[in-house]
Design brief:
Two copies of one chain form a homodimer. The first copy, chain A, contains twelve helices and twelve strands. Chain A is α/β, with parallel strands linked by helices. In chain A, the strands form three sheets. Chain A has a six-stranded parallel sheet, with helices on both faces. Chain A has a four-stranded parallel sheet with strand order 7-6-8-9, with helices on both faces. In chain A, strands 10-12 form a two-stranded antiparallel sheet. In chain A, helix 5 crosses helix 12. Chains A and B meet through helix 4, helix 5, strand 2, helix 6 and helix 11 of A and helix 4, helix 5, strand 2, helix 6 and helix 11 of B. The structure holds a DNA duplex.
DNA sequence: TTGTAGGCGTTATCAA
DNA sequence: TTGATAACGCCTACAA
């Protein structure tokens, strides 16, 4: 049992075996299988049958080496240990995987915390080792070394989001600023004046975007900015919970709290409930992302929805176009997120 | 811009380039870089420096071909389109990725709905094309063609869960039966007699396991089985919601509802809230999995926690042992899940 | 329509 | 301690 698998690789039939069995050259077998037109219908038929029968499948490594192409795209989850279960990622990966499938590409996934040595290594290995044909970037940072790295290596990539210092690379952005502004307007219409914001880490572009929507919203409503209503979060439920505890303990607590993402807002709900605060009635809470969970909280969570799954698919499509040297219609795309008002920001 | 990337692959330095620059043979360069002992310290030093300087990294495809090893493990998310955002998967993948990293393995991910042609194709391509050295299986089915397929191909794999017809392959199981039994006991102690169960699709082993825990629990409490209290779910929040609506509309509705997983139970919470039922007080609700979300529902959800992240890591460790032909300590491991009692099953 | 042969970039065997 | 050379399995000019 122990050495059960030892020599599995030695035993697979190669194109030579198929050729030999048929008394054909490997050329013909190769061409027959790849659907070239200059092979007799009868021959092709026989080749396909025999290959099938022998259980022959091309060795991908050999093909990759020869074609100088891996038919693989890479994605490194920018996540910290020990673990991280933001539903954003499973949805994003499902989108990447589905779209890659449709183009017969594989998806290589790794995990690395942002801005660590490990992360640099991971990207280097893939790029310089030609492990993948292109890379998808997400959770962009305000100054993102990855963009420069990809460019220096002239390596195909697309990104979900931009950096603050550059946006002239193929990416899809979601207009976080405008999204939060809409939300602010909604809150102001509901009569709120003391509106708090729980941030994401500053390194992320999404923080800059969403926070500027907050500031703009305040300005438009002529509400002076009050720093005590801005608290740091970390995009997790627990971060939101802790921040909310601080905010709600203030002498003059906010009547509305915006989380930088849904997870943060959900942490706020937990804190509010613990403090027996009636969300909706006495405290408005809203998030950003539109994850499924936001539609099953109590009360249902007002949020700004971005189409993560579809973005992932589009990013892959753009990337594969780049890889193939085909034109992509636009350099980048800016999507408008959708404000979804639910009970958590409505009174009574 | 358009053809920007075209020839990127042609331009990377190869081991030949490094050798030429140093007037050494490729053999020496290769051995120096791989840390063989039979190369002069001075030579090695120079080789490493030059390689670094020229930005040389071995082409992985060539290495794979030569070594007959990809240093890659595969995982196919058994998920249905258009999308699926069970947090189980991001946690599982994070575990797979982290552990693979530590062994310098890559993780190849794909997406395929269970028991579809696409799924068979995906596995075949990877196995027969030696795309990966081993495969991780999850969401096992009661009769799982994948197990037989892997065996026929003598391909290394480990699985999260077993099948009903075989468990003599390397896997980690979580004792769902015992978990649910504990939960049942807890519910009975709370005075419940009309306890309902919302199932997972029958094809999954986890359904058989958890449901048998339910039946056992009833038997132990001498509660006769009443089929009207068993309703089909699909492991999603919406499935749980729909099933709960039916259950709670019964002339003699249950006083406790168990979801086959946490997502299902969360759907029940949503339904209960819509019907203004006070969960905890008037209705007990519990799930299975122990996802983060269960700790942020309202009320907090009683659940049976399984260590998904750790299981994923362990599965990878076992798999890599198999790949290396090393002994694995046990053929399979059965873990006991942990009952976590929270407010959703406690009165007052 | 089919076959010959060279090479993709490594690693590994063997000899120097 | 180093080097020449032969694979690994596939694709593709080019020739037949």
């Amino acid at each position: 049992m122990l050495h059960y698998f030892q020599n599995v690789l030695e035993k697979m039939p190669t194109i030579h075996d198929v050729a030999k069995r048929l008394n054909l050259s490997i050329t013909t077998v190769s061409r027959a299988l790849d659907g070239y037109s200059d092979v007799a219908a009868e021959t092709r038929q026989k080749v396909i049958e025999t290959a099938q029968e022998m259980g022959y499948t091309p060795t991908l490594a050999a093909r990759q080496l020869r074609r100088k192409r891996t038919e693989t795209i890479g994605y490194i989850m920018p996540t910290s240990k020990p673990r991280f279960s933001d539903p954003f990622f499973s949805e994003f990966i499902a989108g990447l995987g589905d779209e890659a499938n449709e183009h017969s590409f594989d998806l290589l996934v790794s995990v690395a915390a942002p801005n660590q040595d490990m992360e640099v290594n991971a990207y280097q290995r893939w790029v310089q080792g030609r492990r993948v044909d292109g890379i998808i970037l997400s959770r962009m940072r305000t100054q993102d070394w990855r963009v420069q790295f990809m460019r220096e290596n002239r390596f195909p990539f697309t990104a979900f989001g931009r950096t603050l210092i550059a946006d002239d690379f193929p990416h899809i952005g979601v207009d976080g600023k405008s999204g939060v502004q809409q939300l602010m307007q909604h809150l102001v219409e509901q009569g709120h004046r003391r509106i708090a914001f729980i941030t994401a880490p500053e390194e992320f572009t999404l923080q800059a975007d969403r926070f500027s929507g907050y500031l703009n919203g305040l300005a438009q409503a002529e509400i002076p900015y009050d720093p005590q209503y801005t608290i740091s979060g970390d995009l997790t439920r627990d971060g939101g919970y802790r921040a909310a505890k601080i905010l709600l303990g203030l002498p003059n607590p906010p009547t509305a709290i915006i989380g930088a993402n849904d997870l943060t807002a959900i942490g706020v709900l937990t804190a509010a409930h613990e403090l027996k605060i009636n969300v909706g009635q006495d405290l408005a809470v809203a998030g950003f992302d539109g994850i499924d969970e936001s539609n099953h909280t109590q009360p249902l969570l007002t949020t700004i929805k971005q189409p993560v799954y579809e973005c992932a698919r589009l990013l892959v499509r753009m990337l594969i176009n780049l890889i193939n040297g085909e034109p992509i219609s636009e350099q980048y795309i800016l999507l408008q997120p959708e404000l979804i008002v639910r009970a958590s920001t409505l009174r009574g």
